[in-house]
Amino acid sequence: MNSFVAVFKRELKSYFTTPIAYVFLVVFLFFAGYLPFKNGFFEIRQADLYFFFINMPLLFVFLVPATSMRLWAEERRVGSIELLLTLPITVTQAVLGKFFSAWLFLIIALALTFPMVITVCFLGDPDISLIITGYLGTVLMAGGFLSIGCFFSIVSKNQVISFVLSVVTCAILVFAGMPTTLSYLSTFLPSGLVSAIGNFSFQLHFESLQKGLLEFKDISYFILMIIGWIVASTYVLDERKAC
Amino acid sequence: MISITELRRSFGPIVAVDGVSFNVEKGQVLGFLGPNGAGKSTVMKMLACFLRPDSGTAAICGNDILKNPIKVRQCIGYLAENVPLYNEMTVGDFLNFVCDARNIRGKDRKKSLDRVVPMCSIESVYHQTIETLSKGYKRRVGLAQTLIHDPEVLILDEPTDGLDPNQKHEVRDLINKMSQEKCIIVSTHILEEVDAVCSRTIIISRGKILVDSTPKKLKEQYKCSLDEVFRKITRAKQIKPV
Question: What's the confidence (pLDDT) of residue A243?
């Protein structure tokens, strides 16, 4: 536990001692604020954050891999992994420490979008529980993308490669569930397979949380997704740490 | 304190370490010699539980490197060859992180820092970012990191590489000072260093131990300087039994 906390603390600090955190926050907060207004946040005359959350998958497909690509790739390139893993820290503790610190960083970034919440509360009388499940869905999705990014950061020493691989994987998992993709697939695939593909994607589970549905299957989808990629990460890291 | 049995490790078709066995006791300073690519670093990485051996094992302070790697890492101090550090951190933050990871807290932490910082003479750069330091200082920060928990076993991979002559001298003094209570393995290319600090030397080449002796005996036996001994041993195809 101590080693986990040590890695977690060091990682979180390192976001803010390097420019990464600030560049990320500025870009993220700009687009998170700009896109809803562009899509007609005011014109729709509804006091909810639908237009705010609906952009999140697309935004995170690019921004989450940008934070996760350095997690291990950098450590391996610089060689500091040899320091980290010769301290009394297990591979699992190190992977979890890094994952949770990056996740907390993304949660901080999301928390900084609070002006949007204040805006709708000021302008109308929004359904607070809908906003809460919206944020919950976004946090879980960020965790899912992050676990994918973490995995690819271990697979390649090169940050660009790990970025591209995780963007592609995340994008596939998002777009597989888009209505256009599903209706195209249903022209030649049996319906059971199409719904399996849909359920395998982030999009459907994310959307049902946006509707305020707090269902076990959606939450467990995200949790299982995270656990799966993290477990894969620890195995791959254990194999490849030295090469 | 260290006992190695038949360690073997290959990278693809290259056999880096080919059945190395030896023991090191407390109070010994073992000089680990060999030409580039002889497998010195690979052996050390395996002892630090960073690389897994293909076969064979080793025990440090009674803990097996395969079965109990965390215990092993707790009782060793390992300085890697290129001294990896977290460059964006200050020296103080970095040493505090190592204390966190090694679970040194409160009074103990203050005591360890007060001991190790003057010992490696890094007081003047304590608040500086590591990436702004010169190679010599970085190496000393790395050394401070290996010594912070006062380990019983030290594994130092070329600890004086890149240091100026004065710093080299200081590091050797440091090793000599610690040699009584600890068990130390030092790898090096620099043969004068072996003379200065080591009580025993092992020469390896192509993953195999060629000689296990003391610097003094080697010189007597071959009747020449260590440099020449090293050359004779590592270049010769047929090795005379020692």
Answer: 63
The pLDDT tens digits for B157-197 are 988 887 888 888 888 888 888 888 889 999 987 888 888 88
Share of chain A above pLDDT 90, in %: 47
Q: Tell me how far apart the alpha carbons of residues B170 and B187 are, in angstroms, rounded to a whole number.
A: 17
Task: Give domain status of residue B160, yes or no.
Answer: yes
Closest by Cα among A131, A155, A153 to A53: A131
Contact B49 A86 (CB under 8 A): yes
Does a structural domain hold residue B92?
no
Chain B residues in contact with A9 (beta carbon < 8 A): 97, 100
Contact B88 A17 (CB under 8 A): yes
Q: Which domain covers residue B196, as residue numbers? A: 2-81+152-235
CATH number at residue B28: 3.40.50.300
Could you tell me which chain B residue has the CA closest to the CA of A18? B88
Q: Quick one: pLDDT at residue B195?
A: 82
- Select from B45, B51, B102 the Cβ nearest to the Cβ of A87: B102
Angle (deg, nearest 10), helices A202-210 and A56-68: 120
Handedness of CA A227, A233, A239, A241 (dihedral sign): negative
Among chain B residues, the shortest Cα distance to A97 is held by B101
Q: How many domains are contained in chain B?
A: 1
- CB contact under 8 Å between A243 and B73, yes or no, is no
Whether B215 maps to a domain, the answer reads yes
